[in-house]
C-alpha cells in the first residue's frame, strides 16, 4: 500500500486508529507493570480518574466544534469545587443544595464567558486566558490558600461510591438495547430518504464489538467493587451529549457554525445564541467535574484543576476534533480522555519522572493535531 493510500485510510478511520493505539498503550503498560495495569482494581481507578477529564471533554468538544476554545475550564473547575467545599464545610449547607447551587453557578459562569465572546466580541482565547487567571485568583481568595476539609460523606460518595452490580448490569443492558434501537432507526430513516449507507453487517459487527467491550468492562469492574459512580455519571453525560450532537437541530447548528460561520448566519442560524449555549454547557460540565473532584479528594484544594484545561483540550484533539472547527465527536473526546488518563496512570505505576510524562503527553498532542492537518490536506 502506498504512503498516500495508508494516510487516507488512517484519516478516514480515526477512531479505529485511536482504539488500536489505546490497545497498544494498555498492552505495553500491562507488560511493563508485570500484569498490574489491566487488573480490576487498577481499571476501576483508571476509569474513575478518567471521569473528571471526560466531563470537561464533553463540554470542550462542543466548544471546539463551534470554532472556539476555552482555557478557563481548569481554574473554573477548581473554583466551583472550592465553592462546594466552602458551602458544605464553612457554611454548613447540605450536600444536595450545594450541588444544585454549584451547577447553577457553573451555568452562569459559562454564560458570562459566552456573553463576552459573542456580545463584546473578545476572542475566546483571550476570554479563556483571562478567566483562567481570574477564577484561580477568586479560588485563592475564598479558600485563603488553604485546603478546606472534610466535606460531608454523602458528597464524598458521589466520587468514591460504586453502583450496585445488579443495577449496573441492567443499565448496561438498557444502554446496549438503546444503541441497537438507534442504529435500526437511523438505517430505516436513511433508507426512506434514499441516502447511501454502509452495509448492515458493518453496523451489526460494530454493535457486537461494543457489546463485547461493555460486557468485558462490566465483568472486570464487578470483580472489584462494581462500577464507580462517577463513571456511571460520565456515561449518562456521554449519552446526553451524543444525542444532542447527533440527533437534534441544535447539534447540527453547532457543526454548521464551526464549519462555516458566515454561511450559517446567512442561512438564519443564530450564531451568537449557539455559542452562548455551548459556553453555558461548558460551564455546567466544569461544575460537574469540580463537584466530583472535591468529592474524590474529600476536600476543596486551592490548586484543584491545575492544567485541567490542557488535558481536556488534548483529549478532544486526540479524539478527532478539528482545530479548524466543524468536526469532532463526544465519544471520540472521551476515548481521548481515556488515552490521557492511561498515560498518566501507566507512567505513574512505572515510576516515570514527571518531566518525561509531560514530554510524552505533549508529543502525543502534537501528533494528534498533525493527523488533523493531514485530514485537512486530504479534504483540500
TrEMBL record:
Leader sequence residues: none
Keywords: Cell inner membrane, Cell membrane, Membrane, Sugar transport, Transmembrane, Transmembrane helix, Transport
Topology relative to the membrane: Multi-pass membrane protein
UniProt feature coiled coil, ranges: none
Keyword Cell inner membrane: yes
TM ranges: 12-32, 52-69, 76-93, 99-118, 125-147, 167-184, 204-221, 227-250, 271-292, 355-374
InterPro entries found in the cross-reference section: ABC_transp_permease
Cellular location(s): Cell inner membrane
Role according to the record: Part of the binding-protein-dependent transport system for D-xylose. Probably responsible for the translocation of the substrate across the membrane.
Similarity remark: Belongs to the binding-protein-dependent transport system permease family. AraH/RbsC subfamily.
PANTHER family in alphabetical order: ABC TRANSPORTER PERMEASE PROTEIN YPHD-RELATED-RELATED, XYLOSE TRANSPORT SYSTEM PERMEASE PROTEIN XYLH
Protein name, as recorded: Xylose transport system permease protein XylH
Organism listed in the record: Dyella acidisoli
Lineage, highest ranks first: Bacteria, Pseudomonadati, Pseudomonadota, Gammaproteobacteria, Lysobacterales
